[in-house]
Amino acid sequence: MGDFMPETKVGAVFQYFQRPGVAAVRITDGVLKKGEKIHIIGNTTDFTQTVDSMQVQHQEVAEAKAGDEIGVKVSDRVRPHDVVYKIG
User: Does 7-87 carry CATH code 3.40.640.10?
Assistant: First the structure.
């Protein structure tokens, strides 16, 4: 049990851009910061990754809060309504 990291919901995917592999995410709860780990889960989606790049209206940002709509570079395909959890 020592390596269990709690996960908290931070938002949901509302669009996916195949090129360049970016998820449009609406932040619904709390704050998401660059460098944090996220877990994206949906019907056919389930992967974790670090947030390396985050943009609001094509401007690179270090953090996003509830109400923001951000673009996150993702390592795998995501789908609308996939839920984004922050790990830790």
Answer: no
